[in-house]
Description:
There is one protein chain. By secondary structure, the protein is α+β, with helices and mostly antiparallel strands. It folds into seven domains: 3-132, no CATH class; 143-207, CATH 2.40.50.140; 222-291, CATH 2.40.50.140; 306-379, CATH 2.40.50.140; 383-466, CATH 2.40.50.140; 474-553, CATH 2.40.50.140; 558-691, CATH 2.40.50.140. It has eleven helices and 33 strands. It is elongated, with a radius of gyration of 61 Å.
Amino acid sequence: MSDKEKIEAEITSVEVNAEQTEVIVPETRKISDSTPEANVEEEVKEGIKTVESVSEIKTEEEIAEEESSELPGLEMHIKEEVREETTVEGQAETKVEKTVKDEPEAFDWDSLGKKHENYSKEERSRLEDVYTKTMSSIVEHEVIEGTVVSINNREVVINIGYKSDGIIPLNEFRYNPDLKVNDKVEIYVENQEDATGQMILSHKKARILKSWERVNDAYSKDEIITGYVKSRTKGGLIVDVFGIEAFLPGSQIDVKPIRDYDIFVDKSMEFKVVKINQEYKNVVVSHKALIEDELEAQRAEIIAKLEKGQVLEGTAKNITSYGVFIDLGGVDGLVHITDLSWGRINHPDEVVELDQKLKVVILDFDENKKRIALGLKQLTPHPWDSLDPNMKVGDKVKGKVVVLADYGAFIEISPGVEGLIHVSEMSWSQHLRTAQDFLKVGDEVEAVILTLDREERKMSLGMKQLLPDPWKDIRERYPVGSKHKADVRNFTNFGIFVEIEEGVDGLIHISDLSWSKKIKHPAEFTKVGEKIDVIVLDVDEQNRRLSLGHKQLEENPWDVFETVFTFGSVHEGTVIDVKDRGAVVSLPYGVEGFAPSRHIKKEDGTFAKIDDVLPFKVIEFSKENKKIILSHTSTYQKASVANSKESKKNDDKQTKHNVQKINEKMEKTTLGDLDVLANLKSDLEKEEKKNK
């Protein structure tokens, strides 16, 4: 408070026992904010003296009036107000305005000009309350109540008890076309004052905030609210609830499936708030929840009366891929697809139509989970009970393929009666296959009953039994030593599985593939799907196995090689592989030999390497082990002349013997392709002529 205000407060607090008068005090200087503090104090004292002198002036009539007062003890208080006025000459004048006021207490002249309270604590508190109520406290970002002051075509002026009114666009009140002056509305204070000094208010935001509070309150209290269905959207409807757009899923419209959502648009309905996402401000409502609450008592009553085996009538309300839901009059039950028909079906709509009335039997129910399992096929006799009593194992039956699996096919002999044909009973072949290789769904097939269990209601069938068993006379058709062509079916590390005909398989061991080549894996010799010549080596009729051979189709060349690669004979060979222990050497006529490391040293001191063509001497020959040991080193080492002549004589004798033996072999052989042996014979004959 400024010094000027203090002075004026002190002056106005002066009370005098007189009627209200106005006294003009001349030559009073105007008090300004720029007056020094010392001068201010002098002027205050001077003003007080002036007022006291004025207050002492009384007329005789006034004294008489006081003495003749009818209310003895009533004391008068006069409130003086000092104000400044400017005269025509610019002189400042101080006027004292006196107001007579009845007060219960006498004026204390001694307290004039002193800094202490003039009111009791109770009175001061009362006055502060009155004053506070005249002030309006406005807080930003809160919702308050305002009064409509005026309305025009574009705006609405709102009074919220602040220093100025606020303006809100009229379109925020479009939901309330009957808005008029003096109506109370909810207002959201966005800003007390913008750059232009205008207060920013919003009615729309106030409605949203209040609506959000009401929605949360309804959710917490599980209240029933009313909303307006505005439009349809994907999967449901959009509902206006307290001005907020909420989502009504299609599954929450009714307990029954709704096919046409449009019939609910532009209608008001009752809902329950079932979910609120506080982060994204999303609201989900449900009308179905209300209906379920109403049906809960009815369901409990119905379930309490249910018994297993009870037959009820219901309506098919929903069809799914796994079954049909039946409305039993307030409670739903499920008929699983396996309980619709004794026969096998692909989809429930093959048996039941939507809204069809059906009689069903209760198979089981759970009172806690309120699940009821129903059956339809149980109301008709089981097909196995009416199966021909004369049907027995070995009989031929016809049916349709209804299901295919890798392990077999299910054949429907009659509706509800099925038999299984295992894949091993589809063909005499021993090769692993799937049922899809033989049959497809819908095929009509003929089969033989292999097993029949009426109690377990199981039947196994066979197709191959309708064909003759190829192993029945296997020894007559495939005797040992007979030659055949077979199809290569599969490889193993130890041999090749081949099929001579459907159902007749055999194995060619890897050791029976070639006389001369060392085969590490059958894939080096042939390919799957190719045909190969075989000879029957053995027949195992009991285990249905044939032992086959391929190399046995040719004469054993080692009988001939024994006469060619004699001990000490020298032959030209090509190094095809070098190992730590020695080198593998390819010799004439497609045979291979082995030269140890110490025997592949050349005359120049180096060792033989791959692709080197060198003379090799046979130092060991084993017909049983099919092994030839060679040496290059021994070919250039010096030997005695006698040994050389003796060796030459022995070689000539051996050559004649070889030619004679080859002629005998060629006469006895039954093979068509004898090029190798013929070439060998020709070479030996040339050698014999040369020696002569």
